[in-house]
Amino acid sequence: MGTEPKEPSGSRDDLAAALEAQQFFLVYQPTIDLETNGFAGVEALIRWRHPSRGVLSPEDFIDELEESGDIVPVGRWALETACAHGAAWHDKGYRFNVSVNVSPRQFSFTGFHDDVANALSESRFDATLLVLEFAQGTLTADHDATRGRLARLRELGVRFAVDDFEPGESALDELEEFSIDIVKLDREFIATLATSSDAASLVHSLVQLSESRHLQVIAAGIEDSDQRARLQNERVQVGQGYLFSKPHEAEDIDRYLEDFAIFSGKPL
Prior knowledge:
The protein is of the alpha/beta class. The chain has a single domain, classed as EAL domain (TIM Barrel). It is built from 12 helices and 10 strands. It has an 8-stranded mixed barrel with strand order 1-2-4-5-6-7-8-9. It is globular and about 50 Å long.
């Protein structure tokens, strides 16, 4: 007896129409300073409110957007929306980083620099607080082209992060020429800290190397207090994960910020 084929998350026609139909939306996951417990920023994450299948996560549709090229207008929308939300929070007196993920095809698009410049200009969001996050492979695929694109973006004042980073001196050496500001440890790597002495040793080495190169280290996917304690002991500066908060829509971040300030006693 054969198995039923897996139902697709949504057809290409559904995806093509989703942006115009305003079915995409952003949620934001906070990042926390592990030493001070202060609020460090948020990462913008896209979701698709599918008309028949409910809310879908990026793994259900990002690859198809990338393959079709629709990731360029969708990524542009996400960047503009995140900058607008960031500017609104800062108008309320909050000052923190807003990180936005950039796909390989979006980064290679010739108009990407203009997309970033326009999003900053239209929102009046402080460029120094916008962090563009790239997968490591996105940056290292073509070194010469990457250097040129990042140099132009750097002129806007934005900062750069490498997402899902796997520790290692050779990996840092490969990225050093790109003037990266932040390395973000992969959540699957963080999950091994309690059971792998090699993982703890790699984190220790990474933090030492990063400090000498003036890089910030963020640990993603922190799920429990033991992971937090291990990372804090190794002087990892910033953490993110369900231990602190799940992702929230923009209006819920407003309430989160108010509650955070009240219960943590930390300024934002």
